Amino acid sequence: MEIKVSEQKMQKPLEFSYLSEPEMLSRSAQFLELMSQRRSVRSFSGKSFSDQIISNAIKTAGSAPSGANKQPWHFCVVKDIAIKQKIRENVEQEEKENYERRFSEEMKKDISRLQTNHEKPHLTDAPYVIVVFKENFRLVDGIRRKNYYVNESVGIASGLLLAALHQAGLGTLTHTPNPMKFLNEILSRPANETPVLVIPVGFPSEDATVPDLSRKSLREIMSTF
Description:
By secondary structure, this protein is an alpha+beta fold. The protein is built from eight helices and six strands.
């Protein structure tokens, strides 16, 4: 009798470190304090730093869970000033249309206190710009194959990326210009991918300011059953 060997990979023991409850509480409080200081930065200095810091952050993002472990993401790291300038020009063109014609009056009112406009100098001022692409489906030997829970997977990975960059001591901004298909052409990404986030990364300038905003209370964002 022939026994068919499963193609599924064998399981392996979980590597997990159990912590004492006081240490768990301490770590959670320290991380909360750290992440509570994260703010969107729109004014960057040109100060340089090691490429390895960006690589480590993207490796962290790549550790995110994903539907069926298909890892439907790609991160383009842009350092070249000419490419950043081209991205900025295209973004500003689309954003000008957004502010003048596409945004609803309600949205304009909601974002007015942020004091933003179509000009995006941070895209050329920041030493790095990371463009996050989602892979809508895979092409395997020219055959279309499914990815699963793509938006959820890429959203989790992007959150880990932002946390890793902030933990490393860098400022970031999450920018979602719409439409963004021009990024596929500029960065030579295939048609089965869609850009979802443009993230300038670097040190805030010495004169950087942020809006005086408040976050919702725990009571407003959590329900216990």
